[in-house]
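Need the bound structure for S-adenosylmethionine, inputs here:
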Amino acid sequence: MKKKPKETSIGPWAKEKLDALHQYLNFYTTVLKNQRHWLRGTFYVDAFAGPGLSRIRTKSRASESRGLFGPDPESDQAEAEFLKGSPRVALDIANPFSSYLFVERDPYRIVELERIKAQYGDNRRIIVQEADANAALKAWLASGIDWRRHRAVVFLDPFGMQVPWSTIESLARTKAIEVMINFPMGMAIQRLLTRSGVIPECWQMSLDTFFGSQDWRTITYEEGKDLFGPKAIKVSNAGARLLEWYRTRLRQAFGNVSTARLIKNTRGNPLYHLIWAGPNATGLKGAEHILRKGESVRPPKGRHRGERRQKP
Ligand SMILES: C[S@@+](CC[C@H](N)C(=O)[O-])C[C@H]1O[C@@H](n2cnc3c(N)ncnc32)[C@H](O)[C@@H]1O
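Answer from helper R.:
Posting the output first, comments after.
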C-alpha cells in the first residue's frame, strides 16, 4: 500500500527562486507577444513541477504559536503561509504561454497538478505527465515540433543532480529553447566532492553524467603530496571554478548564459544557483537584469585548467 502524502513544506528561500522565475516569464512572454507574425506557439515546460502549492516553513510560526499548553494548532493553521509553486507562477502571468507541460515523478504531486489543470479548465492548454523528467523531455523533443516557428522556456528545478548534461545538450540543439536551471552546488555537488579526493565510484559516475565530462576532477583537485606520498588536494575555490566551467559550457551549448544567482538558506548556507541559458541575446538581457538583483557569483580570478581545455 502506498504511503499517505506528507504536506509539502518548503524553505522561505524558494520565494526568491519563484520571484525570479515569475519576472523572467513575464519578460519573455511580453517580448514574444509582438512577434505573432512568425510565431506559431510558445511552450512552458516544468520538468520538475512539484505540487503546485507549498507551505512555507517559518521558525517563528512554531515558536510564536506555543502557548502555556504547547503549540496551538489553530493559530498554527492561521499563520501558515502558502506559496504558489512554479506551475502556478507560469500559469498566472499576464501573457500566458500557448501550451504548458508539467512533468512530475511523484504520483501524489501529480494529483495536485491534475487539480490545477481542472481549475484552469479551458483557459490554458495544460498537459500533466507522471514521468521521469529526462525521459519526458526526450519524448517531447522527439514529438516533431517545428522549432523555426515555436519557442519554449524549460524550467529545470530538481532537488539534486537529476539533469544530465545530455539533456541540456538536447534542449540547446533546438536553438529555440531557453532554460532556467537550478544548479545544485550546495545541495548536491559539493557533497560528492570529498576533501580527501577519495570518491566512491558511483558518485564519480554521477558527476561524470551530470557534467557530461570527466574534467570536474582536474578542476576540483590538484596533485599534491603528504607524508605518505602523492595525494589529491581539493582546491579552495573548487565550487566557484566548477560553476564557471559549467557556465562556460552552457554558453558554448546555447550561445548565451547569465550570471549565476546564489540562493542561500536562512542560515546563510549556499543551496543552489539559478542560471539562465538560451540562444537569444534579448533573453540574456532580461535574465541578466533579473538574476543580477540577488547575490550573484563572480567568476574566480584567472583561468583554470578545465576551462583552458574547452574548445572556443
Ligand atoms: C525542487 S522540487 C520542484 C519545485 C517546483 N519547481 C517549484 O518551484 O514549485 C523538485 C520536484 O521534482 C520531483 N522529481 C524529482 N526527481 C524527478 C525526476 N527524475 N523526474 C521528474 N520529477 C522529479 C520531486 O518529486 C519534486 O516534486
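Comments: The longest strand covers residues 270-278. The mean pLDDT is 88.
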